[in-house]
Each structure stands twice: as C-alpha cells, then as structure tokens.
Amino acid sequence: MQDERPVPYDISKYQLPAVTVDVVIFSLINRTLHVLLVQRKRWPFEGRWAIPGGFIRLDESLEEAARRELEEETGVRDVYLEQLYTFGDVQRDPRHRVISVAYIALVRADAQTIRVSAENSDVRWFPVDHLPTPLAFDHDQILAYALSRLRSKLEYTTLAFQLLPELFSILELKHIYEQILGEKLDKGNFYRKIKEAGILEETPYMREGRGRPTRLWRFRRDRSGDKQFVFRWREDRREGVS
C-alpha cells in the first residue's frame, strides 16, 4: 500500500515574494478617454502618480484585494474587473521582490465619487494622451499594456458599452470607439457593422437637438455574454476600408 503521509516541507528554505494588485480604470470624460491615477505620499516614488493598487492579504482572493484597494485608495466601487496580466520584473519595486497582478475596468465617471485616501496626496482623472509621466514603478508599462488590450478587446467584446448610459445614440457609441482606438471611423461603415452585430435594440425614444431628432438605442441584455460578434477593424484596414 502506498505511503500517503505528507512529505516534510520547510517553507523557511524559500524566499517569498510579495504580491500586489493594480487596477487600471478607464472612463470617458468630456468626450476624451481618461485613466484614474493616485499621487503617492510616501517612499518609494513619493510625489509621483501611480495606478491604484496595493498588497494583498493572505485571507482574500486577488479580485477581492483589487476591489478593496480600489475603494480604499479612490472611492471607486461596484465595477466589473477583468484580469489583465501579471508583471514580475525583478527590479520593478525597490522595496522587495514584488509581483503585481493587474486588472482593467471601464466606468462612467459621473456614476462614481472619487476621494483621496490617507495613503496618497491626490486622486485624479487624466487624459490618456496627457499623462504625468514617468509614473511610479513600472506603471507606464502596465498602462500601455492595458490600453493595447482595451483596443484589441473592442473587436470581440461589449466592453465599451460600460461607458454608456442605458439609452444612447449610435453616434455616441461611435465616438467611444474612436476615442479608445485613437482613430476616426467611417460613419456609414460603423453603422452597418454595429447593426449587423445584433447587439443593439432600437427604442421608441428620440433625443431632440439643433437638427433632426436622434434615435436612441440600448444594449440587448440577452446578448450580454455573447462573444461571437466581430467588428474586424483590422481586416478592414488591410483592405483599405475606413
């Protein structure tokens, strides 16, 4: 009969790294893509801006730690988080060997109330093309990776809809895609593709403006988990279509 006794294990023989979580939060403010940053109050990188985050506790999951740190440092809560990547360069933190698990989220800034914590000097939204660089630690790298991932995910997820109110115009949706992608999209081509995707539901509501009233749409809740639609902007660009 096989011996099932546990093999002796001495954890003191191994060096243990610390683990942190960082949360990259994007929002659309004044029709421009922004990211939420905190200003560090203490060493290391005192005075520099950083992505919100901190060390995990031994009794919580990674996502629980990310939500706790996000709320403690910025006041942002009740957001959908998606794990982004793990950053573990040996010299990324001068305090210790620290591995960071990064998360990404999109929120409506007008639905959140941000506040400064005791750990930081300030918390503020910054346009992604006007950042206070260099950021602390390797956060420039993390933010660049998050922005790249966000842009790629627009081709096959409904992530951008988290920046919209319940009712919106297709023009508003197009503007969000343009801000995230960093390029102009052909209006007719965008309308055709977004309608063919079958993820919008026309409503009877109209928005009055200076010109003709604008039809309002909503996201189809029955398609919330559908990953099958693809906008294929990259293929269109290869073919020379806007």
Automatic annotation (TrEMBL):
Protein name, as recorded: NUDIX hydrolase
Superkingdom of origin: Bacteria
Family as reported in the entry's similarity comment: Belongs to the Nudix hydrolase family.
Gene3D superfamilies named in the record: Nucleoside Triphosphate Pyrophosphohydrolase (3.90.79.10), Winged helix-like DNA-binding domain superfamily/Winged helix DNA-binding domain (1.10.10.10)
Keywords associated with the record: Hydrolase
Keyword Lipid metabolism included in the entry's annotation: no
Organism expressing this protein natively: Chloroflexus aurantiacus (strain ATCC 29366 / DSM 635 / J-10-fl)
GO function term, MF aspect, one: hydrolase activity
